[in-house]
Amino acid sequence: MRKIFVLVIFSLIVFSSVCLATENGGGAYPNGAEDFMSGAVPPPGFYYVHYAVGYFSDSFRDSHGKSVVPNFKLTVLGNVSRLIYVSNHKILGGNWGMHILVPLMSVDVRTPGGKDSKTGIGDIFIDPCIISWHSKNFHQAAGIEFILPTGAYDKDDIANIGRNYFTIEPVYAFTYLSDNGFEVSCKLMYDINYENDDTNYKSGQEFHCDYTIGKKINKNWAAGLGGYYYTQTTDDEQNGTKVGNGNRGNVFAIGPQIKYDHGRASFILKYQKEMSVENKPEGYKIWLKFVVAL
Protein backbone atom coordinates (compact mmCIF):
# COMPACT_ATOMS: atom_id res chain seq x y z
CA MET A 1 0.00 0.00 0.00
CA ARG A 2 2.83 2.45 0.70
CA LYS A 3 4.07 2.61 -2.85
CA ILE A 4 0.57 3.27 -4.14
CA PHE A 5 0.97 6.84 -2.97
CA VAL A 6 3.73 7.60 -5.35
CA LEU A 7 4.24 6.85 -8.93
CA VAL A 8 1.30 8.89 -9.38
CA ILE A 9 3.53 11.65 -9.34
CA PHE A 10 5.74 10.86 -12.08
CA SER A 11 3.09 10.37 -14.62
CA LEU A 12 1.51 13.37 -13.45
CA ILE A 13 4.20 15.51 -14.16
CA VAL A 14 6.09 15.10 -16.52
CA PHE A 15 3.21 14.76 -17.36
CA SER A 16 0.33 14.06 -15.50
CA SER A 17 -2.42 12.46 -13.58
CA VAL A 18 -1.81 10.67 -10.37
CA CYS A 19 -2.21 8.17 -7.76
CA LEU A 20 -4.48 5.26 -7.48
CA ALA A 21 -6.19 5.49 -10.77
CA THR A 22 -4.23 2.87 -12.63
CA GLU A 23 -1.37 1.30 -10.69
CA ASN A 24 0.25 3.96 -8.52
CA GLY A 25 -2.03 6.49 -10.14
CA GLY A 26 -2.16 8.29 -13.44
CA GLY A 27 -0.80 7.73 -16.90
CA ALA A 28 2.71 8.10 -18.27
CA TYR A 29 1.82 11.02 -20.55
CA PRO A 30 2.20 14.46 -18.97
CA ASN A 31 -1.31 15.81 -19.27
CA GLY A 32 -1.37 19.46 -20.18
CA ALA A 33 1.95 19.38 -22.01
CA GLU A 34 0.57 20.64 -25.33
CA ASP A 35 -1.15 23.95 -25.99
CA PHE A 36 -1.07 26.46 -28.86
CA MET A 37 -1.01 24.96 -32.38
CA SER A 38 -0.86 21.40 -31.03
CA GLY A 39 -2.31 20.02 -34.27
CA ALA A 40 -0.10 22.10 -36.57
CA VAL A 41 3.10 20.12 -37.07
CA PRO A 42 5.80 22.54 -38.33
CA PRO A 43 7.39 22.49 -41.82
CA PRO A 44 10.09 19.92 -42.69
CA GLY A 45 13.17 20.16 -40.51
CA PHE A 46 14.46 19.42 -37.01
CA TYR A 47 12.94 20.99 -33.88
CA TYR A 48 13.79 20.92 -30.19
CA VAL A 49 11.17 21.31 -27.45
CA HIS A 50 11.96 21.69 -23.75
CA TYR A 51 9.30 21.36 -21.06
CA ALA A 52 9.99 22.54 -17.50
CA VAL A 53 7.08 21.63 -15.23
CA GLY A 54 6.17 21.53 -11.58
CA TYR A 55 3.21 19.70 -10.06
CA PHE A 56 2.16 20.44 -6.47
CA SER A 57 -0.53 18.61 -4.48
CA ASP A 58 -1.58 18.47 -0.83
CA SER A 59 -4.84 16.53 -1.30
CA PHE A 60 -5.68 13.01 -2.43
CA ARG A 61 -9.27 12.39 -3.61
CA ASP A 62 -11.27 9.14 -3.52
CA SER A 63 -13.89 7.93 -6.02
CA HIS A 64 -16.41 10.41 -4.55
CA GLY A 65 -14.02 13.36 -4.77
CA LYS A 66 -13.42 13.50 -1.01
CA SER A 67 -9.99 14.15 0.49
CA VAL A 68 -9.01 10.88 2.18
CA VAL A 69 -5.27 10.97 2.95
CA PRO A 70 -4.27 13.25 5.87
CA ASN A 71 -0.92 15.07 5.69
CA PHE A 72 -0.51 14.11 2.03
CA LYS A 73 1.98 16.10 -0.01
CA LEU A 74 3.32 15.49 -3.49
CA THR A 75 5.84 17.53 -5.48
CA VAL A 76 7.00 16.55 -8.96
CA LEU A 77 9.54 18.51 -10.97
CA GLY A 78 10.31 17.65 -14.56
CA ASN A 79 12.72 18.70 -17.28
CA VAL A 80 11.74 17.02 -20.52
CA SER A 81 13.64 17.10 -23.82
CA ARG A 82 11.88 16.35 -27.09
CA LEU A 83 13.47 16.11 -30.55
CA ILE A 84 11.16 16.29 -33.59
CA TYR A 85 11.96 15.52 -37.23
CA VAL A 86 9.56 16.38 -40.06
CA SER A 87 10.35 15.17 -43.59
CA ASN A 88 9.23 16.00 -47.12
CA HIS A 89 8.20 12.36 -47.60
CA LYS A 90 4.45 11.90 -48.09
CA ILE A 91 2.26 9.19 -46.53
CA LEU A 92 -1.51 9.25 -47.19
CA GLY A 93 -1.08 12.77 -48.53
CA GLY A 94 0.56 14.09 -45.36
CA ASN A 95 4.12 14.75 -44.26
CA TRP A 96 5.87 11.94 -42.38
CA GLY A 97 7.75 12.77 -39.20
CA MET A 98 8.94 11.26 -35.92
CA HIS A 99 9.97 12.25 -32.41
CA ILE A 100 11.59 11.06 -29.19
CA LEU A 101 10.96 12.44 -25.71
CA VAL A 102 13.24 11.89 -22.70
CA PRO A 103 12.09 13.05 -19.23
CA LEU A 104 14.32 13.85 -16.26
CA MET A 105 12.13 13.70 -13.15
CA SER A 106 12.34 14.51 -9.45
CA VAL A 107 9.58 13.16 -7.18
CA ASP A 108 8.98 13.84 -3.49
CA VAL A 109 5.99 12.24 -1.74
CA ARG A 110 4.90 12.34 1.90
CA THR A 111 2.05 10.26 3.36
CA PRO A 112 1.05 8.87 6.77
CA GLY A 113 2.67 5.61 5.62
CA GLY A 114 6.07 7.16 4.98
CA LYS A 115 8.00 9.47 2.70
CA ASP A 116 10.34 9.00 -0.23
CA SER A 117 12.03 10.90 -3.04
CA LYS A 118 13.64 9.93 -6.34
CA THR A 119 15.43 11.64 -9.22
CA GLY A 120 16.31 10.13 -12.57
CA ILE A 121 15.44 9.44 -16.20
CA GLY A 122 11.81 8.44 -16.63
CA ASP A 123 10.00 6.39 -19.25
CA ILE A 124 11.00 7.36 -22.80
CA PHE A 125 8.40 8.20 -25.49
CA ILE A 126 8.94 7.32 -29.17
CA ASP A 127 6.65 7.93 -32.15
CA PRO A 128 8.24 6.64 -35.38
CA CYS A 129 5.38 7.71 -37.65
CA ILE A 130 3.66 11.06 -37.25
CA ILE A 131 1.61 12.11 -40.30
CA SER A 132 0.47 15.72 -40.64
CA TRP A 133 -1.92 17.47 -43.03
CA HIS A 134 -2.45 21.18 -43.61
CA SER A 135 -5.01 23.49 -45.22
CA LYS A 136 -5.49 27.26 -44.96
CA ASN A 137 -7.24 27.30 -41.58
CA PHE A 138 -7.22 23.67 -40.43
CA HIS A 139 -4.27 21.47 -39.48
CA GLN A 140 -4.23 17.90 -38.18
CA ALA A 141 -1.81 15.14 -37.23
CA ALA A 142 -1.96 11.47 -36.24
CA GLY A 143 0.50 8.94 -34.87
CA ILE A 144 1.07 6.06 -32.47
CA GLU A 145 3.23 6.70 -29.42
CA PHE A 146 5.19 3.93 -27.71
CA ILE A 147 6.00 4.54 -24.03
CA LEU A 148 8.94 2.39 -22.93
CA PRO A 149 9.57 1.21 -19.33
CA THR A 150 13.04 2.75 -19.10
CA GLY A 151 12.62 4.56 -15.77
CA ALA A 152 13.90 3.10 -12.49
CA TYR A 153 11.30 1.00 -10.65
CA ASP A 154 11.15 -1.02 -7.42
CA LYS A 155 7.81 -2.47 -6.33
CA ASP A 156 8.78 -2.03 -2.65
CA ASP A 157 9.50 1.71 -2.94
CA ILE A 158 6.99 4.47 -2.23
CA ALA A 159 8.33 6.65 -5.05
CA ASN A 160 9.16 5.42 -8.53
CA ILE A 161 10.29 7.30 -11.62
CA GLY A 162 9.24 4.53 -14.04
CA ARG A 163 6.04 2.51 -14.45
CA ASN A 164 7.59 -0.87 -15.37
CA TYR A 165 5.23 -1.63 -18.27
CA PHE A 166 4.74 -0.74 -21.93
CA THR A 167 2.00 1.60 -23.14
CA ILE A 168 0.73 2.05 -26.71
CA GLU A 169 -0.91 5.43 -27.29
CA PRO A 170 -2.75 6.34 -30.53
CA VAL A 171 -2.79 10.13 -30.99
CA TYR A 172 -4.87 12.57 -33.05
CA ALA A 173 -4.47 16.35 -32.88
CA PHE A 174 -6.06 19.28 -34.70
CA THR A 175 -5.79 23.06 -34.84
CA TYR A 176 -8.30 25.51 -36.27
CA LEU A 177 -6.79 28.97 -36.81
CA SER A 178 -9.05 31.66 -38.27
CA ASP A 179 -7.88 34.51 -40.48
CA ASN A 180 -8.13 36.92 -37.53
CA GLY A 181 -6.01 34.71 -35.24
CA PHE A 182 -8.70 32.90 -33.20
CA GLU A 183 -7.50 29.38 -32.36
CA VAL A 184 -8.99 26.10 -31.14
CA SER A 185 -6.51 23.24 -30.66
CA CYS A 186 -6.86 19.78 -29.15
CA LYS A 187 -4.63 16.71 -28.83
CA LEU A 188 -6.57 13.49 -28.14
CA MET A 189 -4.92 10.29 -26.86
CA TYR A 190 -5.95 6.77 -25.83
CA ASP A 191 -3.60 4.66 -23.70
CA ILE A 192 -3.50 0.86 -23.87
CA ASN A 193 -1.41 -0.40 -20.95
CA TYR A 194 0.41 -3.72 -20.63
CA GLU A 195 0.83 -5.66 -17.38
CA ASN A 196 3.47 -4.87 -14.77
CA ASP A 197 5.27 -8.23 -14.50
CA ASP A 198 6.64 -7.45 -11.03
CA THR A 199 3.17 -7.00 -9.50
CA ASN A 200 0.87 -8.82 -11.98
CA TYR A 201 -1.08 -5.54 -12.11
CA LYS A 202 -2.68 -4.32 -15.33
CA SER A 203 -3.76 -0.68 -15.32
CA GLY A 204 -6.98 0.22 -17.10
CA GLN A 205 -7.15 1.99 -20.45
CA GLU A 206 -7.18 5.80 -20.43
CA PHE A 207 -8.60 8.59 -22.59
CA HIS A 208 -7.15 12.07 -22.23
CA CYS A 209 -6.78 15.30 -24.18
CA ASP A 210 -4.93 18.62 -24.00
CA TYR A 211 -6.89 21.65 -25.23
CA THR A 212 -6.42 25.35 -25.98
CA ILE A 213 -8.75 28.20 -26.90
CA GLY A 214 -6.71 31.28 -27.73
CA LYS A 215 -6.22 34.41 -29.80
CA LYS A 216 -3.24 36.11 -31.38
CA ILE A 217 -2.79 39.57 -29.86
CA ASN A 218 -0.23 40.76 -32.40
CA LYS A 219 2.63 39.36 -34.48
CA ASN A 220 4.54 38.07 -31.44
CA TRP A 221 2.00 37.45 -28.68
CA ALA A 222 -0.92 35.05 -28.17
CA ALA A 223 -3.00 34.30 -25.07
CA GLY A 224 -5.81 31.98 -24.07
CA LEU A 225 -7.19 29.31 -21.77
CA GLY A 226 -6.10 25.69 -21.80
CA GLY A 227 -5.63 22.54 -19.80
CA TYR A 228 -6.55 18.87 -19.97
CA TYR A 229 -9.20 16.24 -19.38
CA TYR A 230 -8.40 12.69 -18.25
CA THR A 231 -10.65 9.70 -17.58
CA GLN A 232 -9.99 6.00 -17.14
CA THR A 233 -12.25 3.88 -19.36
CA THR A 234 -11.64 0.34 -18.05
CA ASP A 235 -10.96 -1.17 -14.62
CA ASP A 236 -7.59 -2.00 -13.12
CA GLU A 237 -6.91 -5.73 -12.74
CA GLN A 238 -4.48 -7.76 -10.65
CA ASN A 239 -4.00 -11.47 -11.30
CA GLY A 240 -6.95 -11.23 -13.70
CA THR A 241 -9.37 -9.85 -11.07
CA LYS A 242 -10.80 -6.34 -10.84
CA VAL A 243 -9.08 -4.23 -8.18
CA GLY A 244 -11.60 -2.81 -5.67
CA ASN A 245 -14.18 -0.71 -7.50
CA GLY A 246 -11.89 -0.52 -10.53
CA ASN A 247 -9.73 2.41 -9.34
CA ARG A 248 -10.89 4.56 -12.24
CA GLY A 249 -9.39 8.03 -12.24
CA ASN A 250 -10.82 11.31 -13.48
CA VAL A 251 -9.56 14.90 -13.60
CA PHE A 252 -10.20 18.18 -15.41
CA ALA A 253 -7.77 21.11 -15.43
CA ILE A 254 -7.94 24.66 -16.78
CA GLY A 255 -5.90 27.85 -16.56
CA PRO A 256 -4.39 30.82 -18.42
CA GLN A 257 -1.54 30.53 -20.89
CA ILE A 258 0.51 32.94 -22.95
CA LYS A 259 2.91 32.54 -25.90
CA TYR A 260 5.69 34.76 -27.23
CA ASP A 261 7.23 34.15 -30.67
CA HIS A 262 10.66 35.53 -31.49
CA GLY A 263 12.46 34.53 -34.68
CA ARG A 264 12.81 30.74 -34.84
CA ALA A 265 11.77 30.25 -31.19
CA SER A 266 8.60 30.29 -29.09
CA PHE A 267 8.12 30.55 -25.32
CA ILE A 268 4.95 29.40 -23.55
CA LEU A 269 4.03 29.97 -19.89
CA LYS A 270 0.93 28.33 -18.40
CA TYR A 271 -0.86 27.51 -15.15
CA GLN A 272 -3.32 24.61 -14.78
CA LYS A 273 -5.63 24.05 -11.78
CA GLU A 274 -7.17 20.60 -11.29
CA MET A 275 -10.81 19.96 -10.34
CA SER A 276 -13.44 17.17 -10.51
CA VAL A 277 -10.70 14.80 -9.30
CA GLU A 278 -11.42 11.15 -8.49
CA ASN A 279 -8.94 8.49 -7.28
CA LYS A 280 -6.00 10.86 -7.71
CA PRO A 281 -4.08 13.66 -6.07
CA GLU A 282 -5.53 17.13 -6.68
CA GLY A 283 -3.19 20.05 -7.29
CA TYR A 284 -1.87 22.45 -9.89
CA LYS A 285 0.85 22.62 -12.54
CA ILE A 286 3.12 25.39 -13.74
CA TRP A 287 4.77 25.00 -17.16
CA LEU A 288 7.49 26.84 -19.04
CA LYS A 289 7.91 25.53 -22.58
CA PHE A 290 10.55 26.42 -25.16
CA VAL A 291 10.40 25.50 -28.87
CA VAL A 292 13.11 26.22 -31.44
CA ALA A 293 13.76 25.29 -35.07
CA LEU A 294 17.26 23.80 -35.40
Task: List descriptors.
twelve-stranded antiparallel beta barrel; 3% helix; disordered N terminus; mainly beta; Lipocalin
Helix percent reads: under 10%
Distance between the termini: 46 Å
Low-confidence residue ranges: 1-20
Tell me the CATH topology: Lipocalin
What is the top-level CATH class?
Mainly Beta
Question: How many domains is the backbone divided into?
Answer: 1
Mean pLDDT equals 91
If you had to describe this structure to a student in words, what would you say it looks like?
The protein is an all-beta fold. The protein has one domain: Lipocalin, CATH 2.40.128. It has one helix and 17 strands. It has a twelve-stranded antiparallel β-barrel with strand order 1-2-3-5-6-7-8-11-12-15-16-17. A hairpin with a 2-residue loop joins strand 13 (237-238) and strand 14 (241-242). The protein is globular, with a radius of gyration of 18 Å. It starts with 7 loop residues before the first helix and ends with a strand. The model is unreliable at 1-20 (pLDDT under 50).
Q: Secondary-structure map with pairings?
A:
Elements: H1 8-15, E1 45-61, E2 73-91, E3 94-111, E4 114-121, E5 124-134, E6 138-148, E7 167-177, E8 182-193, E9 195-196, E10 201-202, E11 206-216, E12 221-232, E13 237-238, E14 241-242, E15 250-262, E16 265-278, E17 280-293
Antiparallel strand pairs: 1-2, 1-17, 2-3, 3-4, 3-5, 5-6, 6-7, 7-8, 8-11, 9-10, 10-13, 11-12, 12-15, 13-14, 15-16, 16-17
In short:
With 294 residues, the chain is an all-beta fold. It has one helix at 8-15; strands spanning 45-61, 73-91, 94-111, 114-121, 124-134, 138-148, 167-177, 182-193, 195-196, 201-202, 206-216, 221-232, 237-238, 241-242, 250-262, 265-278, 280-293. The longest helix is centred in the first third of the chain and has 8 residues, at 8-15.
